[in-house]
Amino acid sequence: MENDDVLDPAEGPQQRPQSLMLAFFGNHVLEEGDLCVSSGSVIDVLGRVGVGEQAVRSTLTRMVNRGLLSRQREGRRMYFGLTPHARRILEDGHARIWTRGAVDDAWDGTWTLLGFSLPDSWKSRRHDLRSRLTWSGFGPLYSGLWIAPGEVDVTAVVEELGLSDHVKVFRAQAADLTDIDQMIRDTWDLESIAARYTSFDARWTPHLASEPDTGSGSGSGSGSGSEDDPIGTRLRLVSEWLWTIRTDPRLPARHLPPDWPAGPAQETFRRVAARTEEPARRMARELLDTARAR
Fold first, then answer.
1. Which of 9, 102, 214, 287 is deepest in the core (most CB within 10 A)?
2. Residues 161, 96, 112, 106: what is their CA dihedral angle, to the nearest 10 degrees?
């Protein structure tokens, strides 16, 4: 997932409009084929999470210019849909959330090592590579040598950045003399990663305080509750969860502290997601002005 296109790791739980925009399209367009949504509907939904109309309009234009959204006019209205590029981004994020999950209980003991050497003048490309590697689960073992648990295919990332001649990738297992627990602590900021999960759990657990069987629930401190505004609640939920897992490489559970908070936070996320899924889908059918892409 090209996470510079989705979430800025420094932006915090209150994401920038582009992060929320892609979360919106991932929730309501990704699985609907060639669906497009009117700018008015996007303005309405993002307004529910605090994004103003001008910010939405400028973000839509910027995302079209970056090849993330397509647009078409129907009468006096403008409609926006996903490009193949954006679909790849969102499908990767969907797999990260729903297929791979936040906990790795099945690590096979292997590592992927990636070495790179770029000219000093390539600061932007170096930043892009590091950002993409972070989303893919890598951490800096040394400045030009990054490592990720398991087998990670970064072929598409490297080729897309035009860095095939500057990157070498290996599969490896640690020798007995390597203290894996210490290596993990040296390579990744475990306290920061854990704090994201703990904070997420604290923000969203109140949504489960009164859990009816109908799929909607009461709200918590950051805005309207899921019962009143399921589409806004689910948009915040998914975008905050993506921010939470942004820097988590899914390290082997056996090498993490026994009270590692990823599991409980993920359970909270999935419970709130399950409660808001159908109400948000029903609300989207009633609220969104859509058209088929031409």
1. 102
2. -170
